[in-house]
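User: Alginate lyase, Kriegella aquimaris:
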Amino acid sequence: MLKVGKYRCAFALLVFSVIACFSAPSVQLDTVQLAMVKQKIHEGVASERTLAAYKDLLGNAEQLLTMENPTVMDKSIIPPSGNQHDYLSIGRYWWPNPETKDGLPWIRKDGKTNPETQTDAVDRNRLSDMTNGIKNLSLAYYFSEDERYAQKTISIIKTWFLDEDTLMNPNLEFAQSVPGNPEGRPFGILDGRAIASIIPDAIDMLSTSPNWTADYDLKMTRWLSDYLKWLTESDLGKEEGEQENNHGSWYRFQVASLAHYLGDKPLVKKTVELTQQSLDRQLNSNGGQIHELARTRSFFYSCFNLEALTNIAVFGDEAGMDMWDFESEEGKSLALAINYLTPVIGGQDWAHASLHGADVSYIVPILARMSAHTDANEYSKVLTKAIAILVKKERETGSMNKVLQELSLKTTIGY
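Assistant: Predicted structure for Alginate lyase:
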């Protein structure tokens, strides 16, 4: 039985996706909460949902044991550099130009994914397979302590990041490229967000495995340091950092995440300050996100941007900067932006373009973070309503919601 009401008195403890109070330099995971979930699983007192999520996690991990390790060397399109080790992807919303004989240069159709951009001819799917595989296997290892999962995680890491014959160079010079345009694009840096959010925590969880060596740790620190240097010093990185929409937010998340993991506290503080300053340029007076509302999937992108902003706010805690309650001179704040979205949970229609509707799942992680990091009880109440909507849909469809399922493995709160 799914009991949503149990959330009401416990949301102050909730942490989903990110928190900054770890003994180790974790990025996205609360090690204290994970330890409590692990204990409940092994004592057989975890909630029905948590046990089901754990079973699915182990099932996925078993399948991943036989997965061929992804590598950038397997793409069939060679990057403009001529170096197969350079990551290459094509912007998902770009299509052949019907006005030219050769279809070049491709043109943009916002919100409409071109299937040709998602093939194995480029690296996007392999990057996703790599990060998702590492995420699932490392978490399965943490909960089960089954060394097979650690060994496979390490094997994937070695193939993608460390082995000279198969590694990815620590840059995104040719990410989200456009056929017919030989120049690199800053927007492809968005592809790297999974590396910054998943890999540091996976390394943290692998630290207890006898198969994870000091040499691996040193080499991964070097790779992540080189990638952070590229982000902050390259022309493309600097240009992406100037973007005023979700691209700029996710760029700053990557910088803050890697700086946090590598112990560069001044850079963390600087990045949080830049994020605070960006709010005036991102939000209108009502809290609507100017650039995201112009998109054809406006609700998704509004939540997508807020996911990055609230992730950065967690790093602000470490830097002694309270971004949760921060308000600019123009009155712009995270709360203002979130409050612009929450009427949807109460049944109000979303007044902007949204190709796939206003899916409440998108906002749940954001509300969970706000509820955990602020004293405003309103977010706990709204989150309870949002979860109730998702649980109702679960009962109607007979399938568990992925957001709630993942949440159940990262917090001890039952529902």
